[in-house]
Design a protein that fits this description.
It is globular, with a radius of gyration of 19 Å. The chain has 292 residues and is of the alpha/beta class. The relative contact order is 0.14. The protein is 30% helix and 29% strand.
Amino acid sequence: MPKVSVIVPVYKVEKFLPRCLDSLINQTLKDIEIICINDGSPDNSLQILEEYAQKDSRIKVINQENSGPSISRNRGIELAQGEYIGFIDSDDWIDLNFYEKLYETAKKYDADIAVGDVKIIRKYGRQSYKYQYKSEELAEETYKKYYLCNIPNVGDVWNKIYRTSGIRKLNLTFEPGVYYEDICFMVEALYYLKKMVTVPNVKYYYQRDNAGSILRMKSQKLKNDYVHVRERMLEFFKSKNLALPNYYRPVKKYKFLGLTLVKIRYHSTKRECSLLNIIKFNLPPIKNCEEK
């Protein structure tokens, strides 16, 4: 049994895919399997996958008609043989010791989930932390897990590993045909899986400079799906008698004549204010979350 099964949905990422695969095949944790789901890519992504698979037997290439990232991830979960499951988007990459550190820390604490840092990569190489953990911290209380992962403001699935048996026992899957599907997955995973541990000094690199990313394209479906997953998430909180963390807020925009003058983003307890999307500064922090 591999220690970690890494699930990689692949669609139209020929520019970024080699960097992603290089970061996986060169992991210091050698006992992994790499499940690449080619989601009907119209570019050279499949050819790149096949070339890498010929060089590294740990890479398994699965072809399917274009069905979206949810079905790709669900198929990867079905096929995974590892003790833990990890997800990585094919335009992103990770530190070479990423899975070794997450796996060893998860085993150390007998944790169901281990979570690492995230660095956002923007245009012209600009970088900033989305998550940065200072120490190993074990969390079992629902609200502590939510706070450490900034749930429900975001729902990042890819800077973590999850105990495979727990995912399957709970039948946790991604809703097919819906964007922002990871938000609901993370809300439920952190609620049901008991132990989570943070792992400092190991990074997942999130590529924002990808004009072809689905979530960078404006469409009515994206707007509708965002509303849908938020409503589903809020219903889950209500059904479990959970109070929303008091740091939870949507992004606020203040417009004049169609121009966004002020935008406020919420990142955990931090609030970032943007004027004309040029001048940015932090507002005073808001209080920690509280359990109902």
